[in-house]
Amino acid sequence: MAKVLDINQLVTHFTIAGKPYPVIRDLSFYVNQGETVCIVGESGCGKSVTTLAIMDLLPNNGEVVSGSIKLNEIELTKLNKKERNAFRGRDMGMIFQEPMTALNPLLTIGYQLTENIMLHRNVDKKNATEIAIHYLNVVGISNPKERLKQYPFQLSGGLRQRVMIAMVISVKPKLLIADEPTTALDVTIQKQVLNLMNKLKKDIDAGILFITHDLGVVAEIADRVIVLYAGRKVEEASVEDLFNNPKHPYTIGLMNAVPNVDSDHFEIKPIPGTFPLLTDDIKGCRFHPRCPFAMDRCRSEVPSELEYDNHHRVACFKVEEEYAHE
Amino acid sequence: MRKRKENWLVKAFTNLLKNKLATVAFFFLILEILIVLIAPYLTPHDPLETNIALKLAPGFWASEGYVEGYYLGTDHLGRDVLTRLLYGGRISLWVGFVSTFIGLIFGVTLGLLAGYYKQLDNIIMRFMDLLFTFPGILLAMLIVAMLGASTTNAMIAISVWSIPGFARMVRGKVLSLKEEDYVTAVRSLGASDFRILFLHILKNSLPVIIVVSTMRLASSIMSIATLSFLGLGSPPPNPEWGAMIATARDYMWKQPSLIIIPGVVVMITVISFNIVGDKLRDVLDPSLKENA
């Protein structure tokens, strides 16, 4: 299977008050064609920054310091702004978290859809409208012809998100990035949008990079999961492996923090401590201050990522030692 | 079907007309513009035609001396005041609209560029600050002094004077708009800077631009009257409102209406534009209320 996206040792810095702070530390992963990879983690762990780095949409104080981002074997970090802009939309599209504000309020849905289709697919207005109607149908919007004439404020959040999805997939990108596309929606609409994305997954044959902090969503949509903690990958596994056999203490903590609604008295076991600030200087494993299994070694050395059975990758000394004993 | 396409501009005007004062001001301005446009058909006189025999005739309110057909009286050369007022309005409104438009084109372009491109921001805005620090009239006098007194030069002066106001307001709007999600979204879809700036951002800045334009119209009309009053605008014998007041100064005790009438017309026109601008601001962009 072809790797649509291949990221190697990516490091990004954010400059705060004149000092650079690393946000993503040495992140490597890939997304295959037709595969959905979920990145999970708490707010501030670098999920969104990863997507922005791929799209070259980092805010002014953020920059990719080192590492490589390859889209279909093409190294993106070496290109200039203009060359990179050519990839946006055409080869990689992004769905945003907040559908209420991601559409221009003063332009009709039709205008925004056709504008984008004409830009990337080299068709005239009439064909672009046909394509737009087709894709509105694909994302399950009834009455697409009428909808094209409407303004964003006339649509609900769920519909707007569908329009955004239609807009992105109508140019057939090879990589689809979804940055918490369901977070701002209420649960029933969330479910609908997830179902839609699951259905599209099979049709569009693109690699999907899906960002979320909701493990329920992960279980629903992912093929493979990457767990990020404070800018570093702590665990990577197929979705079955991750849920059946989480290895990293942080992942196990996350799993315990999800309430089980099936038992009578459901208990939430939070991970003790708080998420480190970007400016905190933590030596060794970034998780050690909150880790119940922290050893001396964790406080001084950064654990390297090792591969265990079934392509299950974990960066933790405790897991490493357990395996060494077996 | 038509009804659904009703856009924000139509809606803004519908809301505007819910306010009585704004409605009166708005229709007064429409009427004024129409009357001024068809002035030659409304009055039999020529604004420059003198008739010494009829000089300083009072208007219809006077018990004696009123000459039939000269409703607002005549000036010191026997020219019909009403006719001069109507033709004067052509100059004032023309200068107002044209100079606002020129100021808008340059100001909005500079504002868009300054707001969008960080590298240009300082250069453009410091230059705008430079223009801002000059009192408007002083700047206009400087320009007219360099180019000579004429209607066109006054127009250029007022245009230059209008630029920084537009630039500053638009820049502020762009700074906030470029952080909007939909701007990031269209960028992620591969739209070019030009398209983002001149389609998505400009279109969303229109409320600000419309409001500033209405306000600038008022001050431009005021400015051309001021410049003409000082002898730097429309030269005599052109019937400009400010110039009419200036020449009437010598006769203000004998015939006060010569000063009062053009003065009141300037005042009502300027106040009307201000009222419309103010209410437009309320209906278009309430957030502007504090800092306009």
- On the 0 to 100 scale, the average pLDDT of chain A is 88
Overall number of strands of chain B: 0
Largest interface: A-B, 31 and 20 residues
SSE pattern of chain A: EEEHEEHEHHHHEHEHEEHHHEEH
* Average residue-wise pLDDT of chain B: 86
Count the beta strands of chain A: 12
Number of helices of chain A: 12
Low-confidence spans of chain A:
none
What is the CA–CA distance across the termini of chain A? Answer: 33 Å
Give the name of the CATH architecture of chain B.
Orthogonal Bundle
The CATH class designation of chain B is: Mainly Alpha
The SSE order of chain B reads HHHHHHHHHHH
Q: In DSSP terms, counting alpha (H) and pi (I) runs of 4 or more, how many helices of chain B?
A: 11
Q: What general outline of chain A do the C-alpha atoms trace?
A: globular
Q: How is this structure best described in words?
A:
Chain A has 326 residues and is an alpha/beta fold. Helix content of chain A is 34%, strand content 24%. In chain A, the strands form 2 sheets. In chain A, strands 6-7-8-3-9-10-12-11 form an 8-stranded mixed β-sheet, with helices on both faces. In chain A, strands 2-1-4-5 form a 4-stranded antiparallel β-sheet, with helices on one face. In chain A, a hairpin with a 2-residue loop joins strand 9 and strand 10 (232-238). In chain A, helix 6 runs parallel beside helix 7 (187-204). The longest helix of chain A has 18 residues, at 187-204. The two termini of chain A are 33 Å apart. The relative contact order of chain A is 0.14. Chain B is mostly helical. Chain B has one domain (21-33, 70-286): MetI-like fold (Orthogonal Bundle), CATH 1.10.3720.10. Chain B is 70% helix and 0% strand. Chain B has 11 helices and no strands. In chain B, helix 9 (193-229) packs antiparallel against helix 11. Chain B is elongated, with a radius of gyration of 22 Å.
